[in-house]
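Exercise 7b. Backbone tokens:
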């Protein structure tokens, strides 16, 4: 998070593709602010949960309000 924190942050979305073991194998992002890039990078290579089928796609929408 930038210091000092900005008054508002633009909304952004990160989409993940999980493999059969629940590992994030690909991400897509809508939003180019530093926070969006940081969250996107934070998901890369992580294991979240074993999905019911693979490939499995999940989208996370972030909207920050003061």
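Sequence design result:
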């Amino acid at each position: 998070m930038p210091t000092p924190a900005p008054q508002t942050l633009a909304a952004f979305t990160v989409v993940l593709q999980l493999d059969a073991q629940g590992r994030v194998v690909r991400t897509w992002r809508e939003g180019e602010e530093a926070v969006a890039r940081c969250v996107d990078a934070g998901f890369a290579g992580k294991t979240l949960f074993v999905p019911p089928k693979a490939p499995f796609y999940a989208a996370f929408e972030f909207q920050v309000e003061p």
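Instructor comment: The two ends are 14 Å apart (CA to CA). DSSP finds one helix and three strands in the chain.
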